[in-house]
Design brief:
This protein is mainly alpha-helical and 171 residues long. The chain contains eight helices and no strands.
Length: 171
């Protein structure tokens, strides 16, 4: 075999390997882009449904999700979906940030999925704290309904505060 034949075979093989790598990596990348867009859309719809949508607010919440992703094991897409869920319960502003972080800690601490944790925190915001008792978080029924959410967040933070970040240190 001559050098040109070997060179052609090498280039052909390199092309096939590059094609295989591209096929193996482009599918997951496309899926990640779609999931990211879906999560942002869910957040924006929740914000619009609550009458508080603005491009600025949406971008701030996306930035916060990215910030939390860096210090937890949760993807920014799953955090955005959590924020969307919490928004449907009426959470916004500083309460949203606190609730989002507490939701991540609750999910990590209890070993439950983020959606379930968001439902628990959202229900607590709506004044329904009974479901939390199934997980050992018992809110005194004598506390006025308007103060139960703060009490629930305080208990979540006391018991599970820092769990989401600590989970990144296990590997």
């Amino acid at each position: 075999l001559g050098l040109p034949v070997i060179r052609n075979a090498y280039e052909y093989g390199k092309g096939i390997i590059n094609l295989i790598i591209e096929e193996m990596t482009s599918g997951p990348v496309i899926i990640m882009v779609i999931e990211g867009e879906d999560a942002v859309n869910k957040l924006n719809i929740a914000l619009k449904n609550q009458g508080i949508f603005s491009e600025k607010l949406s971008k701030e919440m996306q930035a916060y999700a990215t910030e939390l992703q860096r210090v937890s094991t949760f993807s920014d897409e799953s955090i955005l979906r959590t924020q969307a869920m919490l928004t449907t319960f009426g959470l916004a502003g500083a309460s949203m940030k606190d609730a989002t972080k507490s939701t991540l800690d609750l999910a990590s601490g209890l070993g439950i999925d983020l959606n379930t944790a968001a439902l628990l925190v959202g229900k607590a915001f709506a004044g329904e704290t009974g479901t939390l008792s199934r997980y050992g978080i018992i809110i005194d029924e004598n506390i006025p309904r308007s103060e139960r959410f703060a009490a629930a967040i305080a208990q979540i933070n006391q018991r599970f505060g820092g769990e989401a970040q600590a989970a990144t240190q296990t590997f």
